[in-house]
Every structure is written in C-alpha cells, then in structure tokens.
Amino acid sequence: MAPALRQPTRSYLDGTPTQRRLGFVAASIFSASYVIAPVYLIATGLALCTRGTAAWPLTIPLIASALVPPSLLPKFGRWLLRTRFMACIPYYFEYEEFHETTDEEVLALHEAGKRVIGCMHPHGVFPFVSVCAATSTLQAADGLGDGLGDLPTAVANVIRQFPILKDVVGVFGCISASGAFLRARLQRRKGSVVLYVGGMIELFYSSSQKETVFLKKRKGFVKLALRTGADLIPVYLFGNTTSLEALKWPVLATISRKSGVSCTLFWGRWGLPLPKRVKLTYARGRTLGLPHIPDPTAADVEKYHALYVEKLVELFDRYKGFNPDYAGKALSIE
Can you tell me the mean pLDDT for 286-314? Predict the structure, then answer.
C-alpha cells in the first residue's frame, strides 16, 4: 500500500470563533432544508385543503421554485460558494483534505479530453464533506475554479424535482443519475461526473465502530467507465456519517431503497437537523488507469471492480488516522 501524504493539501484548523459560528449557520441551511422542504410542502397542501384561496400566498415559494431555470443554479452556486459566508463552513468542521490526484491534474485530464468519474463514499444523511470540498476548491488559487462546472454530481431524479430542495442541492450542479444520461455525458469531451456509488442507503448501516459502503453489487459504474473510456477516482469522505445521526430502523432502509431518497428522521446539534461540530476529512486517491473497452465482458467488469474495491479500502486505511473519529474504525464492504 502506498504511503499517505504527510501534510494535507488544504487545511482549515485555524478558524476564528466568528468564522466557526458563521460556518455553522451556513452549513445548517443545507441539512435544515431536508426537513423544511417536505414539511412546507405538506403544510401548504393541508392549508389549501382547509382554508381554500386564503392559503394561496403559501404557494408562492413553490411556484418560484418551479420557475427557476435549472441551468441557472450551478452558476449561482459557484458564486454563492465563493462568498465569505460560505467560505466559513470548512472552519466550523476543522476540515482537511488530501489530494493524491490534485485539482490541477483533474483539470489537465479534462484539457486532454479524458473524463473521470469521482466516486464518493459514503453519502451519509447529508454530504457535508463534499460541501467543504466544493467551497475549498472554489476559494483556492490552485483549485478547480469554474472547472468545477465540468464535475456535476449525479443524484436521484426525485431530489432534482422536489420543490425548494432541488434548488438548494442544485447549486452544486446536480444532474440525473440515470444510466443512459450518464453514458451520453461521459462520451462528451469534459463530460466528467461525480457519483455517490452506494447512495443514501449507506447511512443505515454505519456505526461508531465501523463504516459500511455498498459496493459488492454496485458494478454498473465500473462497466460505465470501461465502455466510455472514463477513469475512476476513489474518494473517501470521513465525517459524512458522524455529522448527523439518523433513525436506522430496517423498515426505513427498505422504504428509502425503493423510493430512491432517504426516508428517516435525523438530528444533530441540540437534537435539531443541524450538523454537529465534528472533524471532516476528504481523501482523494489516484486514478485507477482503466482501459477503454467498448464492450466489456463480465470478467472485465469483475476484474476492475475488484481493483477498485482494493484501492478504496487502501485509501480508507491510509487516511483514517487523520480523523480521530475514524482512527479505530474498520471499513466494511457490503
């Protein structure tokens, strides 16, 4: 196993009390929206049924959400995440990141016409590590800058269509996670994408003793990469499963898996849907160097899937010691 980087690529340990307080407020907007959006939608529906036309003003935010052009959100997001307010989020979490493949190398791959799939693990209730990573790379002089727009995140269509919530997550440039859409995108120049391979279902299986990622039956992303000539970059997000707690009843996991969206209760600081102040660490590995196989066999997929799992476990073991909440944890592959 290759040695870990000795120093973080970027570190946010020296925040002032004001930066940490502002970072908490900014981060809370994202997780609170997961509660506010569905509650507001239900409350508006009930009000319309009981109060009739008197409740119509409540629909204004929903109408406004429906009218927002999807193409506008990523542009707004890149501006928003560059603001001083959003730049405080990493300081709240004492965030650090380690890039074995640097942002500059990712941009160089794009310029050469090589697409990549950034494979993120795990998702958690809300991926605050990814929020920190997006803010960090947009703020840094050697970051992705406007090139971040070439790395949109694929999410379930239900998230992309849910009023208000779609606008909150849309600032990160979300696109459809359907196989046909991703295959068409990855055949384009600069058609890279970010995938949460295991999805939200992983949040039901992690604990204080271990991390669990769903990979054994998730092989479509490997086949997709081989077919399109894209490469894979494993990324581990330490802290996504500790920043918020969730109710993990098996029946809720079943409902979530079938609906494509997390259906559970969650909480954090003060018992509210606000993130706890835990350390977050982002670790990006090296590209796997996959070949382009337009029509891969089952054996091809199995071979490179096994290689990917091996590299992800190694990445986890290399960097877990940099986050005290993970130093004693093992990674379980399900």
Answer: 96
User: How does DSSP assign 55-74, residue by residue?
Assistant: GGGGGHHHHHHHHS-TTHHH
| Token pair recorded at residue 304 | 């490179």
Helix axis angle, 179-186 to 220-228, nearest 10°: 30
* Cα–Cα distance measured from residue 331 to residue 334, given in angstroms and rounded to the nearest whole number: 10
**47/59 Cα distance (integer angstroms):** 10
Tell me the pLDDT tens digit for each residue of 15-58. Answer: 999 999 999 999 999 999 988 888 888 888 898 899 888 888 88
Q: How far is CA 70 from CA 4, 22, 34, 170, in A?
A: 39, 28, 19, 7
Which residue ranges form the domains of the chain, and what is each CATH number? 12-333 (3.40.1130)
Buried (b) or exposed (e) across 132-167, using 16+ Cβ within 10 A? Answer: bbbbbbbbeeebbbebbebbbbbbbeebbebbbbbb
Mutual angle of helices 17-51 and 60-67, in 10-degree steps: 110
Residue 306, classed as helix, strand or coil, is helix
In the three-class reduction of DSSP (H, G, I as helix; E, B as strand; rest coil), residue 144 is classed as coil
What pLDDT digit, counting tens, does each position of 15-24 carry? Answer: 999 999 999 9
